[in-house]
Amino acid sequence: MKFPKPYALKSIADILDCSYVGEDDYQVYGANEIHVVEKGDIVFVDHPKYYDKALNSAASVILINKEVACPDGKALLISKDPFTDFNKLTSFFKPFKPSTQSISSSATIDNTAVIQPNVFIGNNVKIGKNCIIHSNVSIYDDSEIGNNVIIHSGSVIGADAFYYKNRPEAYDKLKSGGNVVIENDVEIGALSTIDKGVSGSTLIKKGTKIDNLVQIGHDTVIGEKVLIAAHTGIAGCCIIEKNVTIWGQVGISSGLSIGESAIILAQSGVSKNLAAHKTYFGTPASDIKKKYREMAHIANLPNLAKQLKDVTRIK
């Protein structure tokens, strides 16, 4: 989430009503989560376990709940509750803007694109050449759609991230200030959902084809020419490299990487990174040859048990 202009550190501290360590006019350019943070950005951290990771990240400013030694060339914002204050920044720089019409006047839509009835297109959306957006699709604010993209009925592009902090009284939502970017020649099936990034972009790269009833979580990057079959759920912050094939009802946990040209067979559960150019199956998903050997051994257990029983009887 980049700010519309550079802000002085003191100005950010005033917005948050917090103290700081650094020069008043230290320049701040945006705010991002740790996995997408860049020089000039603010990153938040609220647990000692992750202090070092945040302090040594590319971030220039660390929004933190304890004053610690500040790394050279960086600054600190000292907050009682960094999670809440990060939400304040999102609300300040990327506030929710209600729409009053089905297709926002601020949307940019190429005149070759076909927009079917009952489509909602939010503020600042961009839609490229020769796209077909079928009825009852909702495209939230700031989404970017490339050329030759087809989105089938009932799909939702840009809903909020599923990201909550568990507090004693209730779940506290982390607000989403990012967007969705869909590159050229992508097709998205009916009733699929792609969540926006928390502070960056959820990205679907060119040539990818997504079936019906697929969920893609916030900040995930889907590579070029990926095939994703129906009922697949991909959690946030995953990286799916190019030419991957994901068959139906696959579940992929958050923050994982799937290597180039990997194949994940139907109903697999992925809980760790998967290497490139291999086929995987099962829960937890593992190499198909290994998994089939395991299944063969399991199928043979009754025979082994009978043999053991017979040997015991003979003795």
How many DSSP-defined strands? 34
Number of domains: 2
Strand line-up in the sheet with most strands = 8-11-14-19-22-25-28-31-33-34
CATH topology of the largest domain: UDP N-Acetylglucosamine Acyltransferase, domain 1
Q: What structural class do you assign from the helix and strand content?
A: alpha/beta
Determine Rg (CA atoms, Å): 24 Å
Strand share of the residues? Answer: 25-35%
Counting DSSP H or I runs of 4 or more residues, the number of helices is 5
* Distance between the first and last residues' Cα: 74 Å
* Stretches with pLDDT under 50, minimum 5 residues: none
Largest sheet: number of strands, sense, barrel closure: 10 strands, mixed
CATH homologous superfamily assignment of the largest domain: Hexapeptide repeat proteins
Q: Provide the CATH top-level class of the largest domain.
A: Mainly Beta
Query: What is the molecular shape?
Result: flat
Helix content percent band:
10-25%
Kindly report the average pLDDT value.
96
Please tell me the CATH architecture of the largest domain by its name.
3 Solenoid
